[in-house]
User: What shape does this take?
Amino acid sequence: MEMRDGLKRAVAIAMLLAFCLAACAEPEATPETPTPTVADPYREIRKRMVETQIRARGVTDEAVLAAMEKVPRHEFVPPEYLDQAYADHPLPIGYGQTISQPYIVALMTQLLELKGGDKVLEIGTGSGYQAAVLAEITDQVYTVEIIGELEKSAEARLRRLGYDKVKVKHADGYYGWEEYAPYDAIIVTCAPDHIPQPLIKQLKDGGRLVIPVGPPGGYQTLWKITKRGDEVITENMGGVIFVPLLRGKR
Ligand code: SAH
Assistant: This one.
């Protein structure tokens, strides 16, 4: 009798223990307050853009790939081109100018060999998209635009999207941006017919300049130029098409 009572008590304790353990392991589901998430309907399409247009063509720099996956390109194109924001070609941004093809943006960014903390100058702000990609990699981004209206709207857009540290200037970028020189890297997103010497001058020793050079509308070559002391090393990266580098502030 005693033993049976003892057994009963032991079973009861064991069951209680099992119940407690189960309760601890799996707390009863309580209705959760949904965590507010900012809807980004373009996230998947951007991922696909990176995989199919950029990684597939040989861009390997993970910092560049991550930046291309993060920057909301659709915010940088005119509303009438929204449905083509992630398409594999350049798009008009007004004033006869264009936002470059995503692959070209990624390729040129990779050629700059940026590390976090590098100081980089862009000539040809346009929509501000390339500047935003650079700003995902380093917090020292300077960009110069010759068309006043584009400069103003790009600066407002960059601020609205939180790219607060990018410094934008309305000027003829042929002369670079002397005030903040020298730079670890300079990227030119419009094509002059020769390499502007002020840009070479404003490069640090070991600095990289990525620049398309050639006649307007004609065959242009993308050059990667590395400054080593008094020497420059030039590498031909292939044929490209860019809008021309204009002269004189507009
Ligand atoms: N990088 C831009 C695309 C640039 S299109 C983007 O991501 O959207 C080329 C830009 O270079 C145009 O906006 C054009 O107005 C500008 N540009 C042309 N000549 C220039 C010059 N001398 N200095 C600065 N910007 C110039």
The chain is about 30% helix and 25% strand.
